[in-house]
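Aim 2, interim progress: modelling of the flavin-adenine dinucleotide-bound target.
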Amino acid sequence: MFLKATTETKEHAPSYYAASANWQTDYPQLEGDLNVDVVVVGAGFSGVATAVELCERGYKVALVESNRIGWGATGRNGGQIIGGYGSDPSAFRSSIGSEGVRIVEDMGSECVEIIKDRIEKYNIDCDLKWGYCEVGLKKRHLKSYREWADEEPAIQLLDQNEIKQYVNSDLYLGGYYREDWGHIQPLNLCIGEAKVAESMGAKIFEQTQITRITYGENPAVHTEKGSIRANHVILCGNAYMGNLVPYLDARVLPATSCIIATEPLSDEQLQQTMVRDVAVCDSRTALDYYRLSADKRLLFGGLSNYSGLEPANAKGIMQAKMIKVFPSLKNARIDYSWSGRMGISVRRMPQIGRIKDSNVLYISGYSGHGVAPTHMTGRILAEAVDGDTHRFDIMNKMFHLPWPGGKLLRRPAMAVGMMWYKMLDAL
Ligand SMILES: Cc1cc2nc3c(=O)[nH]c(=O)nc-3n(C[C@H](O)[C@H](O)[C@H](O)COP(=O)(O)OP(=O)(O)OC[C@H]3O[C@@H](n4cnc5c(N)ncnc54)[C@H](O)[C@@H]3O)c2cc1C
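Predicted structure of the complex, ligand included:
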Protein backbone atom coordinates (compact mmCIF):
# COMPACT_ATOMS: atom_id res chain seq x y z
CA MET A 1 0.00 0.00 0.00
CA PHE A 2 1.49 3.36 -1.05
CA LEU A 3 1.05 6.24 1.37
CA LYS A 4 0.96 9.97 0.73
CA ALA A 5 0.89 13.06 2.95
CA THR A 6 -2.65 14.45 3.17
CA THR A 7 -3.01 17.87 1.60
CA GLU A 8 -4.99 20.05 3.99
CA THR A 9 -6.38 23.53 3.48
CA LYS A 10 -7.91 25.82 6.08
CA GLU A 11 -11.39 24.96 4.74
CA HIS A 12 -13.27 21.70 5.36
CA ALA A 13 -12.10 18.40 3.85
CA PRO A 14 -14.17 17.42 0.77
CA SER A 15 -16.53 15.24 2.80
CA TYR A 16 -20.21 14.42 2.51
CA TYR A 17 -20.58 16.31 5.79
CA ALA A 18 -19.13 19.56 4.43
CA ALA A 19 -21.42 19.20 1.40
CA SER A 20 -24.50 18.69 3.61
CA ALA A 21 -23.62 21.23 6.34
CA ASN A 22 -26.60 23.28 7.53
CA TRP A 23 -24.56 26.44 7.05
CA GLN A 24 -20.97 27.54 6.44
CA THR A 25 -19.51 29.02 9.58
CA ASP A 26 -17.64 32.28 9.06
CA TYR A 27 -16.50 33.58 12.43
CA PRO A 28 -13.91 36.38 12.49
CA GLN A 29 -10.19 36.02 13.07
CA LEU A 30 -8.83 37.26 16.38
CA GLU A 31 -7.28 40.71 16.09
CA GLY A 32 -6.05 42.47 19.22
CA ASP A 33 -6.10 41.49 22.86
CA LEU A 34 -8.96 40.07 24.88
CA ASN A 35 -9.68 39.03 28.48
CA VAL A 36 -12.13 36.24 29.27
CA ASP A 37 -12.71 33.68 32.04
CA VAL A 38 -11.78 30.68 29.91
CA VAL A 39 -10.18 30.32 26.50
CA VAL A 40 -10.75 27.03 24.69
CA VAL A 41 -8.28 26.11 21.92
CA GLY A 42 -9.66 23.92 19.11
CA ALA A 43 -13.30 23.77 18.00
CA GLY A 44 -13.98 20.09 17.47
CA PHE A 45 -16.43 18.29 19.73
CA SER A 46 -14.03 18.54 22.70
CA GLY A 47 -13.69 22.31 22.44
CA VAL A 48 -17.26 23.12 21.48
CA ALA A 49 -18.79 20.79 24.11
CA THR A 50 -16.52 22.35 26.75
CA ALA A 51 -17.56 25.84 25.64
CA VAL A 52 -21.27 24.95 25.87
CA GLU A 53 -20.86 23.47 29.36
CA LEU A 54 -18.92 26.55 30.52
CA CYS A 55 -21.42 29.01 29.03
CA GLU A 56 -24.25 27.11 30.71
CA ARG A 57 -22.43 27.71 34.01
CA GLY A 58 -22.18 31.44 33.28
CA TYR A 59 -18.51 31.72 32.27
CA LYS A 60 -17.21 34.23 29.73
CA VAL A 61 -15.64 32.01 27.07
CA ALA A 62 -13.52 32.47 23.94
CA LEU A 63 -13.30 29.55 21.49
CA VAL A 64 -10.38 29.70 19.06
CA GLU A 65 -10.05 27.46 16.00
CA SER A 66 -7.16 27.29 13.48
CA ASN A 67 -9.48 26.45 10.60
CA ARG A 68 -13.27 26.04 10.74
CA ILE A 69 -15.61 24.76 13.46
CA GLY A 70 -15.48 20.94 13.25
CA TRP A 71 -12.63 20.99 10.71
CA GLY A 72 -10.65 18.16 12.38
CA ALA A 73 -11.74 14.60 13.26
CA THR A 74 -15.09 15.95 14.44
CA GLY A 75 -16.28 17.06 11.00
CA ARG A 76 -14.96 13.93 9.26
CA ASN A 77 -15.81 10.95 11.47
CA GLY A 78 -18.18 8.00 11.12
CA GLY A 79 -20.82 9.83 13.15
CA GLN A 80 -21.36 6.78 15.35
CA ILE A 81 -22.58 7.51 18.87
CA ILE A 82 -21.02 4.76 20.94
CA GLY A 83 -20.90 4.81 24.73
CA GLY A 84 -17.89 3.82 26.81
CA TYR A 85 -14.28 4.41 25.77
CA GLY A 86 -11.55 2.88 23.63
CA SER A 87 -10.37 0.97 26.70
CA ASP A 88 -11.96 -0.88 29.62
CA PRO A 89 -11.94 1.32 32.79
CA SER A 90 -11.34 -1.73 35.00
CA ALA A 91 -7.81 -1.92 33.54
CA PHE A 92 -7.11 1.24 35.59
CA ARG A 93 -8.29 -0.17 38.94
CA SER A 94 -4.80 -0.02 40.49
CA SER A 95 -4.59 3.75 39.89
CA ILE A 96 -8.22 4.87 40.44
CA GLY A 97 -9.65 2.16 42.74
CA SER A 98 -12.98 0.34 42.40
CA GLU A 99 -15.03 3.48 43.10
CA GLY A 100 -13.08 5.30 40.36
CA VAL A 101 -13.76 2.45 37.93
CA ARG A 102 -17.50 2.65 38.71
CA ILE A 103 -17.52 6.43 38.16
CA VAL A 104 -15.68 6.15 34.85
CA GLU A 105 -18.01 3.34 33.71
CA ASP A 106 -21.06 5.47 34.56
CA MET A 107 -19.63 8.31 32.49
CA GLY A 108 -19.55 5.86 29.56
CA SER A 109 -23.39 6.08 29.49
CA GLU A 110 -23.69 9.70 30.61
CA CYS A 111 -21.79 10.84 27.51
CA VAL A 112 -24.55 9.48 25.26
CA GLU A 113 -27.22 11.10 27.43
CA ILE A 114 -25.47 14.48 27.08
CA ILE A 115 -25.73 14.32 23.27
CA LYS A 116 -29.38 13.24 23.44
CA ASP A 117 -30.32 15.97 25.92
CA ARG A 118 -28.38 18.70 24.10
CA ILE A 119 -29.93 17.95 20.73
CA GLU A 120 -33.39 17.99 22.34
CA LYS A 121 -32.81 21.03 24.54
CA TYR A 122 -31.40 23.24 21.81
CA ASN A 123 -33.25 21.67 18.89
CA ILE A 124 -30.07 20.92 16.90
CA ASP A 125 -30.71 19.63 13.39
CA CYS A 126 -28.17 16.80 12.89
CA ASP A 127 -30.01 13.69 11.59
CA LEU A 128 -29.97 11.84 14.93
CA LYS A 129 -30.95 8.15 14.64
CA TRP A 130 -30.88 5.48 17.36
CA GLY A 131 -29.71 1.90 16.81
CA TYR A 132 -26.30 0.24 16.67
CA CYS A 133 -25.04 -3.20 15.64
CA GLU A 134 -21.68 -4.78 16.24
CA VAL A 135 -21.00 -7.62 13.82
CA GLY A 136 -18.63 -10.57 14.21
CA LEU A 137 -16.48 -12.34 11.66
CA LYS A 138 -15.00 -14.88 14.05
CA LYS A 139 -16.40 -17.26 16.65
CA ARG A 140 -14.37 -15.49 19.31
CA HIS A 141 -16.24 -12.25 18.54
CA LEU A 142 -19.57 -13.99 19.22
CA LYS A 143 -18.20 -15.42 22.47
CA SER A 144 -17.25 -11.92 23.66
CA TYR A 145 -20.78 -10.65 22.81
CA ARG A 146 -22.34 -13.46 24.88
CA GLU A 147 -20.11 -12.62 27.83
CA TRP A 148 -20.93 -8.93 27.56
CA ALA A 149 -24.68 -9.60 27.22
CA ASP A 150 -24.57 -11.36 30.61
CA GLU A 151 -23.63 -8.03 32.23
CA GLU A 152 -25.31 -5.50 29.93
CA PRO A 153 -29.10 -5.70 29.52
CA ALA A 154 -29.07 -3.25 26.56
CA ILE A 155 -27.40 -5.90 24.37
CA GLN A 156 -29.67 -8.01 22.19
CA LEU A 157 -27.74 -10.96 20.74
CA LEU A 158 -28.36 -11.78 17.07
CA ASP A 159 -27.52 -15.04 15.32
CA GLN A 160 -26.38 -15.33 11.71
CA ASN A 161 -29.94 -15.17 10.34
CA GLU A 162 -31.13 -12.45 12.70
CA ILE A 163 -28.23 -10.13 11.92
CA LYS A 164 -29.35 -10.11 8.29
CA GLN A 165 -32.56 -8.37 9.36
CA TYR A 166 -30.24 -5.42 10.17
CA VAL A 167 -27.17 -5.79 7.94
CA ASN A 168 -27.66 -7.97 4.88
CA SER A 169 -24.15 -9.36 4.39
CA ASP A 170 -22.97 -12.96 4.17
CA LEU A 171 -19.75 -12.01 5.91
CA TYR A 172 -20.94 -12.05 9.49
CA LEU A 173 -21.48 -14.99 11.85
CA GLY A 174 -23.71 -12.96 14.16
CA GLY A 175 -23.67 -9.83 16.24
CA TYR A 176 -25.69 -7.75 18.65
CA TYR A 177 -28.06 -4.82 18.52
CA ARG A 178 -28.61 -2.05 21.04
CA GLU A 179 -30.99 0.82 20.65
CA ASP A 180 -29.33 3.25 23.07
CA TRP A 181 -26.42 3.99 20.69
CA GLY A 182 -26.84 5.46 17.22
CA HIS A 183 -25.57 8.01 14.73
CA ILE A 184 -25.59 11.68 13.72
CA GLN A 185 -24.24 14.05 11.06
CA PRO A 186 -21.26 15.09 13.21
CA LEU A 187 -20.41 18.39 11.53
CA ASN A 188 -24.00 19.59 11.88
CA LEU A 189 -24.02 18.60 15.56
CA CYS A 190 -20.75 20.48 16.12
CA ILE A 191 -21.70 23.68 14.31
CA GLY A 192 -25.12 23.49 16.01
CA GLU A 193 -23.42 23.31 19.40
CA ALA A 194 -21.09 26.19 18.47
CA LYS A 195 -24.16 28.28 17.70
CA VAL A 196 -25.58 27.36 21.11
CA ALA A 197 -22.34 28.52 22.78
CA GLU A 198 -22.39 31.72 20.73
CA SER A 199 -26.00 32.39 21.72
CA MET A 200 -24.90 32.18 25.38
CA GLY A 201 -22.15 34.75 24.80
CA ALA A 202 -19.09 32.74 23.69
CA LYS A 203 -16.74 34.68 21.43
CA ILE A 204 -15.75 32.44 18.54
CA PHE A 205 -12.74 32.93 16.29
CA GLU A 206 -11.96 30.87 13.18
CA GLN A 207 -8.81 30.67 11.05
CA THR A 208 -6.93 31.77 14.14
CA GLN A 209 -4.08 29.54 15.18
CA ILE A 210 -2.67 29.61 18.68
CA THR A 211 1.09 29.66 18.24
CA ARG A 212 2.27 30.19 21.82
CA ILE A 213 1.01 29.77 25.37
CA THR A 214 2.02 31.65 28.49
CA TYR A 215 1.58 29.37 31.51
CA GLY A 216 0.79 30.26 35.13
CA GLU A 217 -2.17 31.21 37.29
CA ASN A 218 -3.49 33.61 34.64
CA PRO A 219 -2.38 31.96 31.43
CA ALA A 220 -2.63 33.48 27.95
CA VAL A 221 -2.69 32.23 24.38
CA HIS A 222 -1.06 34.11 21.53
CA THR A 223 -1.76 34.29 17.81
CA GLU A 224 -0.13 36.12 14.95
CA LYS A 225 -2.41 39.12 15.47
CA GLY A 226 -3.44 39.08 19.11
CA SER A 227 -3.72 37.34 22.46
CA ILE A 228 -6.31 36.20 24.97
CA ARG A 229 -5.68 36.17 28.71
CA ALA A 230 -7.89 34.06 30.95
CA ASN A 231 -8.19 32.34 34.31
CA HIS A 232 -8.07 29.01 32.49
CA VAL A 233 -6.86 27.78 29.11
CA ILE A 234 -8.28 24.49 27.86
CA LEU A 235 -6.40 22.73 25.06
CA CYS A 236 -8.62 20.69 22.73
CA GLY A 237 -6.44 20.49 19.60
CA ASN A 238 -6.02 16.72 19.94
CA ALA A 239 -4.31 15.06 16.92
CA TYR A 240 -4.03 18.37 15.05
CA MET A 241 -2.11 20.36 17.65
CA GLY A 242 1.37 19.45 16.45
CA ASN A 243 4.18 20.49 18.74
CA LEU A 244 2.44 23.47 20.41
CA VAL A 245 2.81 21.64 23.74
CA PRO A 246 5.65 19.09 23.52
CA TYR A 247 4.32 17.21 26.60
CA LEU A 248 1.07 16.47 24.70
CA ASP A 249 2.76 15.86 21.36
CA ALA A 250 4.67 13.02 23.01
CA ARG A 251 1.42 11.49 24.29
CA VAL A 252 -0.83 11.69 21.21
CA LEU A 253 -0.14 9.64 18.11
CA PRO A 254 -2.05 10.99 15.10
CA ALA A 255 -3.55 8.04 13.17
CA THR A 256 -5.44 8.28 9.88
CA SER A 257 -8.80 6.73 8.96
CA CYS A 258 -10.68 7.01 5.64
CA ILE A 259 -14.36 7.17 4.65
CA ILE A 260 -16.23 6.97 1.34
CA ALA A 261 -19.85 7.94 0.64
CA THR A 262 -21.85 6.30 -2.14
CA GLU A 263 -24.58 7.91 -4.18
CA PRO A 264 -28.04 7.72 -2.48
CA LEU A 265 -29.13 4.04 -2.54
CA SER A 266 -32.45 2.80 -3.98
CA ASP A 267 -34.94 0.87 -1.83
CA GLU A 268 -33.82 -2.32 -3.56
CA GLN A 269 -30.15 -1.60 -2.79
CA LEU A 270 -31.07 -0.85 0.83
CA GLN A 271 -32.83 -4.22 1.18
CA GLN A 272 -29.65 -5.89 -0.10
CA THR A 273 -27.41 -3.99 2.34
CA MET A 274 -28.64 -1.84 5.23
CA VAL A 275 -32.05 -3.27 6.02
CA ARG A 276 -32.18 -1.16 9.20
CA ASP A 277 -30.85 2.38 9.55
CA VAL A 278 -28.30 1.54 12.26
CA ALA A 279 -24.66 2.36 12.87
CA VAL A 280 -22.42 -0.69 12.37
CA CYS A 281 -18.90 -1.64 13.47
CA ASP A 282 -17.21 -4.98 13.07
CA SER A 283 -15.12 -6.34 15.93
CA ARG A 284 -11.64 -6.26 14.43
CA THR A 285 -8.91 -3.88 15.57
CA ALA A 286 -8.55 -2.67 11.97
CA LEU A 287 -12.32 -2.45 11.69
CA ASP A 288 -14.89 -1.48 9.04
CA TYR A 289 -17.54 0.97 10.30
CA TYR A 290 -20.53 2.17 8.34
CA ARG A 291 -24.03 3.59 8.36
CA LEU A 292 -26.53 5.41 6.16
CA SER A 293 -26.71 9.17 5.79
CA ALA A 294 -30.05 10.99 5.98
CA ASP A 295 -30.29 10.83 2.18
CA LYS A 296 -29.51 7.07 2.19
CA ARG A 297 -25.90 7.07 1.07
CA LEU A 298 -23.70 4.38 2.56
CA LEU A 299 -20.90 6.06 4.50
CA PHE A 300 -18.25 3.34 4.76
CA GLY A 301 -15.12 3.86 6.86
CA GLY A 302 -11.97 2.03 7.86
CA LEU A 303 -8.40 1.68 6.66
CA SER A 304 -7.04 3.07 9.92
CA ASN A 305 -3.28 3.30 9.97
CA TYR A 306 -0.70 4.69 12.34
CA SER A 307 1.59 6.20 9.75
CA GLY A 308 -0.38 9.50 9.88
CA LEU A 309 -0.47 9.30 6.07
CA GLU A 310 -3.31 8.49 3.69
CA PRO A 311 -3.10 5.52 1.28
CA ALA A 312 -2.50 6.88 -2.24
CA ASN A 313 -5.66 5.18 -3.58
CA ALA A 314 -7.80 5.41 -0.46
CA LYS A 315 -11.03 5.72 -2.46
CA GLY A 316 -10.34 2.54 -4.48
CA ILE A 317 -9.21 0.55 -1.43
CA MET A 318 -12.26 1.62 0.56
CA GLN A 319 -14.56 0.78 -2.34
CA ALA A 320 -13.08 -2.74 -2.53
CA LYS A 321 -13.60 -3.15 1.23
CA MET A 322 -17.22 -2.04 0.90
CA ILE A 323 -17.87 -4.45 -1.99
CA LYS A 324 -16.45 -7.29 0.09
CA VAL A 325 -19.15 -6.61 2.68
CA PHE A 326 -21.91 -5.74 0.18
CA PRO A 327 -21.17 -7.26 -3.28
CA SER A 328 -24.44 -5.78 -4.60
CA LEU A 329 -22.86 -2.30 -4.39
CA LYS A 330 -20.29 -3.20 -7.05
CA ASN A 331 -21.59 -0.53 -9.40
CA ALA A 332 -22.65 2.07 -6.82
CA ARG A 333 -21.07 5.44 -7.59
CA ILE A 334 -18.72 6.88 -4.97
CA ASP A 335 -19.52 10.57 -4.55
CA TYR A 336 -17.16 11.52 -1.71
CA SER A 337 -13.91 10.25 -0.24
CA TRP A 338 -11.98 11.82 2.64
CA SER A 339 -9.76 11.05 5.59
CA GLY A 340 -9.12 12.44 9.05
CA ARG A 341 -6.74 12.15 11.96
CA MET A 342 -7.59 10.79 15.35
CA GLY A 343 -5.39 11.02 18.44
CA ILE A 344 -4.31 7.68 19.86
CA SER A 345 -3.13 7.49 23.47
CA VAL A 346 -0.92 4.68 24.73
CA ARG A 347 -3.66 3.30 27.00
CA ARG A 348 -6.55 4.20 24.64
CA MET A 349 -8.31 6.26 27.30
CA PRO A 350 -9.05 9.98 26.86
CA GLN A 351 -6.27 11.90 28.60
CA ILE A 352 -7.49 14.77 30.79
CA GLY A 353 -4.96 16.70 32.79
CA ARG A 354 -3.11 19.91 33.64
CA ILE A 355 0.17 21.23 32.23
CA LYS A 356 2.95 22.13 34.66
CA ASP A 357 0.62 22.71 37.66
CA SER A 358 -0.77 25.72 35.78
CA ASN A 359 -4.33 26.65 34.89
CA VAL A 360 -3.77 25.19 31.44
CA LEU A 361 -5.90 22.03 31.16
CA TYR A 362 -6.02 19.56 28.29
CA ILE A 363 -7.95 16.73 26.74
CA SER A 364 -6.73 14.42 23.98
CA GLY A 365 -6.33 10.84 22.78
CA TYR A 366 -9.82 9.35 22.44
CA SER A 367 -8.24 6.68 20.26
CA GLY A 368 -10.85 6.59 17.51
CA HIS A 369 -13.81 6.63 19.86
CA GLY A 370 -14.73 10.20 20.63
CA VAL A 371 -18.14 11.33 19.36
CA ALA A 372 -19.82 10.61 22.69
CA PRO A 373 -16.79 10.72 25.07
CA THR A 374 -15.89 14.27 23.94
CA HIS A 375 -19.23 15.39 25.34
CA MET A 376 -18.37 13.81 28.69
CA THR A 377 -14.91 15.34 28.85
CA GLY A 378 -16.38 18.76 28.02
CA ARG A 379 -18.52 18.40 31.14
CA ILE A 380 -15.61 17.19 33.30
CA LEU A 381 -13.43 20.13 32.23
CA ALA A 382 -16.22 22.62 32.92
CA GLU A 383 -16.79 21.06 36.36
CA ALA A 384 -13.06 21.42 37.09
CA VAL A 385 -13.05 25.11 36.10
CA ASP A 386 -16.14 25.51 38.29
CA GLY A 387 -14.24 24.13 41.31
CA ASP A 388 -15.47 20.52 41.31
CA THR A 389 -12.42 18.50 40.34
CA HIS A 390 -13.68 15.10 41.52
CA ARG A 391 -14.14 13.50 38.07
CA PHE A 392 -11.23 15.46 36.58
CA ASP A 393 -8.91 14.07 39.29
CA ILE A 394 -10.03 10.49 38.62
CA MET A 395 -9.35 10.83 34.89
CA ASN A 396 -6.06 12.57 35.59
CA LYS A 397 -4.90 9.64 37.75
CA MET A 398 -4.93 7.32 34.72
CA PHE A 399 -1.27 7.83 33.86
CA HIS A 400 -0.77 9.55 30.50
CA LEU A 401 2.22 7.76 29.12
CA PRO A 402 4.47 9.09 26.36
CA TRP A 403 4.68 6.98 23.22
CA PRO A 404 7.87 4.91 23.35
CA GLY A 405 10.48 5.57 20.70
CA GLY A 406 10.24 9.37 20.72
CA LYS A 407 9.19 11.32 17.65
CA LEU A 408 11.41 9.37 15.29
CA LEU A 409 10.57 5.78 16.18
CA ARG A 410 7.03 5.81 17.54
CA ARG A 411 5.33 5.71 14.12
CA PRO A 412 7.27 2.74 12.72
CA ALA A 413 6.86 0.96 16.06
CA MET A 414 3.10 1.52 15.97
CA ALA A 415 2.86 0.53 12.30
CA VAL A 416 4.46 -2.80 13.22
CA GLY A 417 2.00 -3.07 16.13
CA MET A 418 -0.91 -2.47 13.76
CA MET A 419 0.37 -5.18 11.40
CA TRP A 420 0.47 -7.55 14.35
CA TYR A 421 -3.18 -6.75 15.23
CA LYS A 422 -4.22 -7.16 11.57
CA MET A 423 -2.63 -10.61 11.66
CA LEU A 424 -4.54 -11.47 14.85
CA ASP A 425 -7.74 -10.12 13.21
CA ALA A 426 -7.21 -12.54 10.36
CA LEU A 427 -6.77 -15.64 12.57
C1 LIG B 1 -12.18 9.18 9.94
C2 LIG B 1 -12.58 9.14 11.38
C3 LIG B 1 -13.70 8.40 11.77
C4 LIG B 1 -14.09 8.37 13.11
N1 LIG B 1 -15.28 7.77 13.44
C5 LIG B 1 -15.75 7.84 14.72
C6 LIG B 1 -17.04 7.34 15.05
O1 LIG B 1 -17.80 6.90 14.19
N2 LIG B 1 -17.42 7.38 16.35
C7 LIG B 1 -16.62 7.89 17.33
O2 LIG B 1 -16.99 7.87 18.51
N3 LIG B 1 -15.41 8.45 17.04
C8 LIG B 1 -14.97 8.45 15.76
N4 LIG B 1 -13.78 9.05 15.44
C9 LIG B 1 -13.04 9.77 16.48
C10 LIG B 1 -13.65 11.14 16.76
O3 LIG B 1 -13.94 11.80 15.56
C11 LIG B 1 -12.69 11.99 17.59
O4 LIG B 1 -12.35 11.28 18.77
C12 LIG B 1 -13.28 13.33 18.02
O5 LIG B 1 -13.89 13.99 16.94
C13 LIG B 1 -12.19 14.19 18.62
O6 LIG B 1 -12.66 15.50 18.75
P1 LIG B 1 -11.67 16.65 19.22
O7 LIG B 1 -12.47 17.88 19.33
O8 LIG B 1 -10.93 16.20 20.42
O9 LIG B 1 -10.59 16.76 18.06
P2 LIG B 1 -10.74 17.41 16.52
O10 LIG B 1 -12.14 17.21 16.10
O11 LIG B 1 -9.67 16.83 15.77
O12 LIG B 1 -10.58 18.94 16.82
C14 LIG B 1 -9.36 19.56 17.10
C15 LIG B 1 -9.43 20.97 16.54
O13 LIG B 1 -8.39 21.74 17.11
C16 LIG B 1 -7.93 22.64 16.13
N5 LIG B 1 -6.59 23.08 16.52
C17 LIG B 1 -5.48 22.31 16.65
N6 LIG B 1 -4.42 23.05 17.02
C18 LIG B 1 -4.86 24.33 17.13
C19 LIG B 1 -4.23 25.57 17.46
N7 LIG B 1 -2.90 25.62 17.74
N8 LIG B 1 -4.98 26.70 17.48
C20 LIG B 1 -6.31 26.65 17.20
N9 LIG B 1 -6.95 25.50 16.87
C21 LIG B 1 -6.25 24.36 16.85
C22 LIG B 1 -7.97 21.83 14.83
O14 LIG B 1 -7.99 22.66 13.69
C23 LIG B 1 -9.22 21.01 15.02
O15 LIG B 1 -10.36 21.61 14.42
C24 LIG B 1 -13.33 9.07 14.10
C25 LIG B 1 -12.20 9.80 13.72
C26 LIG B 1 -11.82 9.85 12.38
C27 LIG B 1 -10.63 10.66 11.98
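The chain has a mean pLDDT of 94. Residues 9-79+187-253+347-405 form a domain with the FAD/NAD(P)-binding domain fold (CATH 3.50.50.60).
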